[in-house]
Amino acid sequence: MKIDILTLFPEMFTGFLNESIIKRAIEKKAVEINIIDFREYSLLNHHQVDDTPYGGGSGMVLMCEPVVRCLDAIKTPDSLVILTCPQGKVYNEKKAHELKKYKHLIIICGHYEGYDERIREFVDLEISLGDFILTGGEIPAMAITDSIVRLLPGVIKEDSWEYDSFTNNLLDYPTFTKPADFRGLKVPEVLLSGDHKKIAEYRKNEQIKRTKERRPDLLEGENGKDN
Ligand SMILES: C[S@@+](CC[C@H](N)C(=O)[O-])C[C@H]1O[C@@H](n2cnc3c(N)ncnc32)[C@H](O)[C@@H]1O
Predict the structure, then answer these.
(1) CA-based, 20 to 30 A from 20: which of 27, 44, 160, 169?
(2) How far apart are alpha carbons 35 and 3 in whole angstroms?
(3) Ligand 1 nearest atom to the CA of residue 130, by list position
(4) Cα(116)–Cα(123) distance, integer angstroms
């Protein structure tokens, strides 16, 4: 898979691409990630990319031209173009599983007051990270990329995301590590029993109990992978 991220602030991605699982995924060639400064596609003096809003009001609006010229240069018939936008559909694990199937994703990061409305004619999908406003689309682009890359073959063991929260409409089961007794807080006996059938049953029951308590909406099939 190839992911191209269009941004005005490429340096924000330095740590993201050079640490931990994402770094290893790139090294293993499970994914190619390109950070593209779309300012370079501006035809205006000083590579201007934004201007004041028609009709007045505060803040600067990103112009269509540099973003669309950049898309013209990199888009192929295999590309899916994603706009990061608080007005888009709220992102979830189900969407990550859908997006991992594409060969080429292009993610556009807005900034300032957002985009000229006409940008919407040039994108396939608008994704929001949630009902809050960030200063730019870089953190959403990293979140979307991270959530997809960990699902790509060979990046992490499949059984480590199989029971992750939201996969199959359930939250994850509780996990424990050593010591078995921490300040009087004991690990459930069943996990020390070595009986794999009983452990699997316990975990499944805990997943259902936890989901009912904390996120009953998942059991109604609104946000999980398989609805
Ligand atoms: C300050 S925001 C613009 C918000 C816009 N004026 C509005 O109210 O809809 C600037 C950019 O940050 C990104 N952004 C901010 N919040 C976001 C969110 N919750 N999800 C996805 N992207 C977001 C988008 O790329 C957006 O264009």
Answers:
(1) 169
(2) 9
(3) 19
(4) 13
pLDDT value of residue 224: 47
109 lines ligand 1 (CB under 6 A): yes
Can you give the CATH number for the domain in which 64 is found? Answer: 3.40.1280.10
Contact by Cβ (8 Å): 33, 25: no
Mean of the per-residue pLDDT values of the chain:
95
Same domain, 137 and 210: no
Q: 69 to each of 63, 72, 74, 197, how far by Cα in Å? A: 11, 5, 9, 57
Q: Is residue 89 part of a domain?
A: yes
pLDDT beyond 90 at 116 = yes
Residue 109: both structure tokens together: 């990061």
Closest C-alpha residue for ligand 1 atom 12: 136
Residues 6+ positions from 192 with CB-CB distance below 8 Å: 180
**Bridge partners for 82 per DSSP:** 107, 125
DSSP string, 136-150: BSHHHHHHHHHHHHT
State the Cα–Cα distance between residues 82 and 185, nearest whole angstrom: 46
